[in-house]
């Protein structure tokens, strides 16, 4: 074969290779988008970004070679249809919503829409339509309203008809009022987030059918009443967050059935009654936050809890609960613990300093605002490790044992330092006096206590000198 034929053959080969790498979007026979679907998409987006937006000119092939940020498509019967639509400035090149927007009915004509998200779109007060949602029943699997302060009014009852939903996120909007009971129909949900709104009233007790739910977040609302007993039926639940509400009453016994739960956050409610009888059964827990609930008023202390059975705990916050009793020794067995909050309770007794210091992961310890007593005997290295993440102040009967000038002062009075010599002689001096003694040879008011044993009785002779006294006892 001549070199001319060889070059010609190579050219044909490269042409075939490049042609084979071409994407279907740039070929003449690429799949088209159904015309009514395309028009519905343009009109729906135009309602959010403004009438001046001309989608047909800017994005003539929105599912092909001129895609719209926030729009995803899929093929059905060799035609492109919209499957995901995100409205709002999620990314820098996303389409931002206009201040004055309107929800056009064409939005609900997208036949194969599976995911619909509104992010920071609604800034001025608006209520979303209660109709038209029925058109999305057969396909919609994810519906999210995130950071839309202008979305007010009650959550539409019609949302409860979207029985294919696996994710419903209503996060940080202006919704208020009671939850629609139709939410009980959404038994296919894996994630239900209603946090950061203004919802009120009781939560429907209808979770018995939510076998696949993994995340339930009702935090930062104004829900009241007791926690639903059917919570215990959500056997797959991993995260339960009902913090910062007005829930009251006892913690349901059924909560102990949640064997897969890793996070339980009940902080800042009015939950009372028995504290841990149910919770300690959930050995999968990594985060247990119960602070700000009056659970300590039941009279139970912390000593009866088998904390060592909860060895997976990483975060334990029991602050501001009115708890009584001593700090349980079982807490010193939690080797994975990173955060321990026991502050602002009525705890008494000594602090197991040496045992707590051996916890390898502990990075924050708060025991301030209690009635703890005795000596705090953490090492200087422990204080350096903790920094500002350790607080022990406001314990009137607790003092800090100081062994060097470099040791961190944590807001407690210094303990009395005892120096023992041979026999039974004990010299007691305060830390401040020891400091002064080292700096000056002048008289410093040293307190001397001598124990004298006579006929089985111990006599204490207390002598006070105005000069430094050096005692030798043999």
Automatic annotation (TrEMBL):
Domain of life according to the entry: Eukaryota
Answer yes or no on keyword Lipid biosynthesis. Answer: no
Which chain regions cross the lipid bilayer? 456-473
What is its membrane topology? Single-pass type I membrane protein
One record GO biological process: response to fungus
Q: Which SMART domains match?
A: LRR_SD22
Q: Where does the signal peptide begin and end?
A: 1-19
One Pfam family recorded for the sequence? LRR_1
> Mind telling me which GO cellular component terms the entry cites?
plasma membrane
Entry-linked InterPro entries: Leu-rich_rpt (IPR001611), LRR_dom_sf (IPR032675)
The protein's location, in the record's own words, is: Cell membrane; Membrane
UniProt keywords, alphabetically: Cell membrane, Glycoprotein, Leucine-rich repeat, Membrane, Receptor, Repeat, Signal, Transmembrane, Transmembrane helix
What is the name listed in the Swiss-Prot or TrEMBL entry for this protein? Piriformospora indica-insensitive protein 2
* UniProt source species: Cardamine amara subsp. amara
């Amino acid at each position: 074969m001549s070199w001319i034929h060889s070059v010609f053959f190579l050219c044909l080969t490269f042409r075939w290779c490049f042609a084979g790498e071409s994407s279907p979007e740039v070929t003449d026979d690429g799949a088209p988008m159904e015309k009514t679907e395309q028009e519905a998409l343009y009109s729906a987006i135009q309602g959010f970004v403004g009438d001046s937006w001309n989608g047909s000119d800017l994005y003539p092939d929105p599912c092909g070679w001129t895609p719209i940020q926030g729009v995803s498509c899929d093929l059905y019967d060799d035609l492109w249809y919209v499957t995901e639509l995100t409205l709002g400035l999620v990314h820098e090149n996303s389409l931002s919503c206009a201040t004055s927007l309107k929800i056009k009915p064409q939005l609900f004509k997208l036949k194969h829409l599976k995911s619909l998200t509104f992010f920071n779109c609604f800034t001025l007060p608006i209520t979303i339509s209660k109709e038209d949602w029925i058109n999305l029943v057969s396909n919609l699997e994810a519906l999210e309203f995130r950071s839309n302060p202008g979305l007010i009014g009650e959550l539409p009852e019609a949302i409860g008809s979207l029985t294919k939903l696996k994710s419903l996120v209503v996060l940080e909007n202006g919704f208020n009022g009671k939850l629609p009971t139709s939410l009980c129909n959404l038994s296919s949900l894996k994630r239900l987030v209603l946090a950061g709104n203004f919802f009120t009233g009781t939560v429907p007790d209808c979770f018995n059918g939510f076998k696949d739910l993994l995340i339930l977040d009702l935090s930062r609302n104004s829900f009241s009443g007791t926690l639903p007993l059917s919570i215990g039926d959500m056997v797959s639940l991993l995260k339960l967050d009902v913090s910062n509400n007005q829930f009251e009453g006892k913690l349901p016994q059924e909560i102990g059935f949640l064997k897969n739960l890793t996070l339980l956050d009940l902080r800042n409610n009015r939950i009372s009654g028995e504290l841990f009888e149910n919770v300690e059964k959930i050995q999968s827990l990594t985060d247990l936050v119960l602070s700000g609930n009056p659970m300590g008023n039941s009279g139970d202390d912390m000593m009866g809890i088998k904390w060592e059975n909860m060895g997976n705990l990483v975060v334990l916050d029991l602050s501001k609960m009115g708890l009584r009793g001593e700090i349980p020794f079982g807490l010193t067995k939690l080797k994975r613990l990173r955060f321990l909050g026991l502050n602002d309770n009525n705890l008494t007794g000594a602090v197991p300093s040496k045992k707590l210091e051996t916890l390898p992961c502990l990075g924050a310890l708060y025991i301030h605002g209690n009635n703890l007593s005795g000596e705090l005997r953490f090492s200087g290295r422990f204080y350096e490790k903790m920094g500002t993440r350790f607080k022990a102040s406001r314990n009137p009967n607790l003092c800090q044992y100081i062994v060097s000038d470099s040791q961190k002062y944590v807001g407690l009075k210094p303990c009395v330092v005892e120096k023992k010599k041979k026999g039974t002689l004990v010299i007691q001096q305060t830390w401040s006096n020891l400091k002064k003694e080292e700096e000056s040879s002048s008289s410093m008011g040293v307190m001397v206590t001598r124990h004298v044993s006579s006929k089985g009785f111990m006599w204490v002779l207390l002598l006070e000198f105005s000069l430094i006294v050096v005692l030798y006892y043999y």
